[in-house]
Amino acid sequence: FFLFLNQLQKDLEEVKELLTKATRKRLHDVLTTEKHKLELEIKNQPPTKLKADAGEEEKSLLGGYTVKINNYGWDQSDKFIKIYISLNGVQKLPAENVQVNFTERSFDLLVKNLNGKNYTMTFNNLLKPISTEGSSRKIKTDTVLVMCKKKREEKWDCLTQVEKESKEKEKATYDTSDPSEGLMSLLKKMYAEGDDEMKRTINKAWVESREKQSKGDLPMDL
Hints:
Siah-Interact_N, CS_dom, ubiquitin protein ligase binding, nucleus
């Protein structure tokens, strides 16, 4: 920045020097225009910061960028739901930089100033209630372990209510009284979501099935 500003000032001094020597009107006008441009550019440069201010700015940038954590693993015992979050070097942070707030059906994780970034994770609508007093977090090598204490010692099929509803909806799609309808739904879903190769395979199987039916090799209701 200082080099750039210094260069502009030198250019301005040279233009002023040339102006004093210019005798032709056209050249004088061009130099005058250039002089105004340089003066305006120098005027519009941001003010230089004091060294202390620059240090504060660097410090705020260091802990200012927040990353949302999406990857995790989980496990359970009779008493706890355990969520494992991988974060390189987290064990080097002061303990107060790793904070977890629990409610009966949620928790928020905040990891402050790890390698110049903040990391957050939020779980809402946990499948079942947890004990806020009995829940905690542990810091291990490159990992934060969130321990959610179950209010009742029972197995959880998934972590959140949303996951449960999604599974039930998916199950209902294929759980029909007619097995052939369930198969048709599955094939339609595979066809809709598949690539060209998948679609060709399903089409081929369908044509071959129809040909066998017409020859009497298969019952017509399949």
